[in-house]
Amino acid sequence: MLAKKDLKKVNNFLWEIQKSFRNDMKVPARIYVSEKIIEQIFRDKSLSQLVNVTTLPGIVKYALAMPDMHEGYGFPIGGVAATKIPEGVISPGGIGFDQNCGVRLLRSQFQEKEVKPYLDKIATEMKKEIPSGLGEGRVIKLSISQINEILEGGVPYLVKKGYGVEQDIENCEEKGKMEKADSSFVSEKAKNRGRNQVGTLGSGNHFLEIQKVEQIFDEKIAQTFELFEDQVVVMIHTGSRGLGHQNCTDYLRITMNAIGKYGIKLPDRELVAVPFNSQEGQRFFKAMSAACNFAWANRHMIAYYTKKAWSQALQKEVNLSLLYDVAHNIAKVEDHLVDNKMEKLLVHRKGATRAFPPEHPDIPQVYKKTGQPVLIPGSMGTASYILSGTSESAEAWHTVCHGAGRTMSRREATRRISGTEVVRKLAEKGIIVKCRSQRGIAEEAPLAYKNIDDVIEVVHNAGLAKKVARLIPLAVIKGE
Amino acid sequence: MPGHHSPKYKILEHTADLKIKAFGKEKPELFRNAMLGMQQALRPKIKDEKAETKIRIESENIESLLFDFLSEINYLNETNFEIYHEIVFNEFSETKIEAEIFGKKVKRFGLQIKGVTFHDLSIKKEKDNLWEATILFDI
After folding, report:
1. DSSP annotation of B95
2. Beta carbons of A204 and B112 less than 8 Å apart
């Protein structure tokens, strides 16, 4: 276990584990954290996991951890690693099982008071329209060829089919489609798992929330983001469901069998990695890209059914427009400045969100002056944040955190609090909860997470992204 | 008797995921108990309808075999909406399993396992002659 003495303070919001700490480290490890929450990172194995990440062949500059970091498998959650192309590696464990787990935010034109009387009805309709996928509910079983279309076509394919509008493509990271996606490298098993899961929420920490804009920090940017105080918005948090999970499983095995061939030795089997330009590396990247398209399609269809639910509850056509959609479990080829030279890097973000700065070529025209909208959900029932990308985050490969970060195991949470108690506490705050299991609610209790405000303070003060608005929940709809 | 009073499996602590320790006098029993621990974690609502299927797994070593075995069970759980409470091994070696699994149809699951991980995966014989396996699942 590491201790505070092993960390060197770079500034008030950045700490470093030097390369000399362990002799297999190829680069230092850096952690974005404040004095206020630093003690929390020593509670589990996340720092040793971050040190393991520094041993990846071809890793550039440092392994990074975001302030919401906690123990994962292989990489810590909140871990970021950029590897140099072509000699660097790609690691399935650096992305995670839920490929392109992410968040999207829909804006309504309503103020809280206009929606309040209908809130319960809207939440009920949303729960009905968007099943968890783990039991009964709307089930559309797609054919393998339809799955292939989604894997390669992503959001633009669905818009062409009549679901949604052009803006849903424009305001989605990667315009809702990774170009390198190739469905022929995704197994039949993975496709089978996805067949009845498009438009489903899943379990664990995935949720839908109806929220309101409680506070605006930057009026000008908020205006461009079309956000105003008291505005009601919808947040969607889910990923690529069984299809992505199976894809990760498949490629963990493929890369594990290939690793010997490339003479790569790593301290944790779950870190398994192969050269990006190897046959296995390229296949994995194309298969992962396809699963990412599936995840964007999933969130896109959930948004479609959300609009339907709102229209049914309010008995009129409701427009919910897409602010943005971000991935937080992904690896992407990006150009970054390394020692003043532009380099092509493969950036792994596992439980971390891309946050491109103003004028970046890969962000929507409408956000060119403000930087990319960054969506950070809090834990269930607590605040969430909208931020904007900054140029200062270049040293972190333009990356920020992905949430509050767990501090407590699910079992510990269920020992400390019951689902009924969590629902009662949220009700006291005026928050409606629609859930399918009390156990799932207890496991996701706010007490099991870090305080999101403390995490966002680090992000903002470290310059990783700029606070634009704080959102608070009005209704929570949980998967399971 | 070693193992007689010991539990089939234990759920261990982990910040975000599911960690199970399974026990068995022999490796087939160890694999069976690892499967049972995983099945319980899914919190299924069971239907009164029987389910059975055959599995065949080949891997390069015993640890990969456990990973592949549990991954296959997870795949069958999710795609067939079934839960398995019994397994009959027709063949069991360090690198191969052929078995029939028996269980029930499921109305709904309370939890989905995203995948089995190799993180700290271990299979070892303890002092009391009992086999132990530790497996971390991403949930």
Report:
1. S
2. yes
